[in-house]
């Protein structure tokens, strides 16, 4: 029986960030399914596990960890892989993870949820989100023009955090070809031993009923 | 001359988070002004200081630190105040800071920027942001029903991160009276020795010209 259990569903890039880390470190784990599209994360039972009402949640040796950034930090310490080598790097990784949560994953993931999964069509909200996402993409693309990875010129959990949603191909109305350094970085991550595409690691959540 | 220099402007709650930390720890600092409303953070000169194009930025002993969460973490270590006491607390603080960046400050600050500063009026975008902000406020309010502060039952940098924008009174269309535990928590923070209101520490940025 795997020590690590992860509440996860396939459509979630935040779950995929953690699944990538587990795959790239060769860590055995067991998936606990999440019936996201039927409201499981908004229900009382799930909120008793994570008051923030979000997946992923990692269970390990009595610990219950939520927020993908916390889980990545924890797994880096547990496995000794992809973490910081000193305090300056630790702060740089934290800086990119906070930017990811505030401006990179956040706008892009919400845009992709509306346009690519809910098929909302275009609206002032999708236009707003796309504008914000493109600004964040520009900043990351420029940074990656000068270095192969976000921090320390090697793969770290900062890359796994920001790259999570970039591997999905649902429609967003943003053409990644406009960000060649992001595409090259994504290819470098995908070439790492053990890497797998999102839905090859975590199956789709059940569709919404009726 | 103060060791700490902070690029900051009054309207920014992210700058205020750091200014509160400096005030509550009795740390001397010098402000470096930011002409935000005339585009300084979007210009090349500022991007050379912070590629993410954001304030606050802290300068200290040759270090250039951005992202309020990174700066709070750094100041907690430097001053020995309001930081974690063990690894479990460190992860809990990180968890709330990531939630803050993703869902609490992010939506609320953007809503307040549009409605309260730009006077955008109501739109599908402000409605979207307000819905998201209210969901995040509900989660924090519920958490604070059971404990005086977010982590460890004492003031930490997690509180300073999430509370930043709560002290401003520009219009957002959200009535904080709907979140009594957040109001009580805000009052507990305001009662801490050294606390000052936002514009009493950091002056307004110059108005947009033309």
From TrEMBL, chains A, B:
Pfam family, one: GST_N
PROSITE patterns attached to this UniProt entry: GST_CTER, GST_NTER
SUPFAM superfamilies assigned: GST C-terminal domain-like, Thioredoxin-like
Every GST N-terminal domain range: 2-83
Residues covered by the GST C-terminal domain: 86-210
Family: Belongs to the GST superfamily.
Name of the molecule in the record: Glutathione S-transferase
């Amino acid at each position: 029986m795997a020590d690590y259990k992860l509440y996860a569903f396939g459509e979630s890039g935040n779950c995929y960030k953690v699944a990538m880390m587990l795959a790239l470190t060769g860590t055995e784990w067991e998936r606990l399914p999440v019936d996201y599209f039927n409201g499981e994360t908004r229900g009382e039972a799930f909120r008793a596990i994570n008051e923030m009402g979000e997946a992923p949640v990692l269970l390990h040796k009595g610990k219950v960890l939520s927020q993908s950034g916390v889980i990545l930090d924890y797994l880096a310490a547990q496995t000794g892989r992809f973490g910081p080598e000193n305090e300056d790097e630790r702060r740089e990784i934290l800086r990119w993870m906070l930017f990811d949560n505030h401006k990179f994953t956040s706008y892009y993931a919400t845009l992709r949820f509306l346009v690519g999964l809910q098929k909302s069509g275009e609206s002032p909200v999708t236009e707003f989100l796309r504008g914000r996402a493109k600004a964040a993409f520009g900043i990351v693309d420029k940074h990656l023009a000068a270095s192969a990875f976000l921090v320390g010129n090697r793969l770290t959990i900062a890359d796994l955090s920001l790259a999570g949603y970039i591997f999905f191909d649902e429609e967003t109305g943003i053409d990644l070809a406009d960000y060649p350094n992001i595409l090259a970085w994504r290819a470098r991550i995908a070439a790492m031993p053990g890497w797998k595409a999102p839905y090859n690691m975590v199956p789709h959540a059940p569709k919404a009923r009726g």
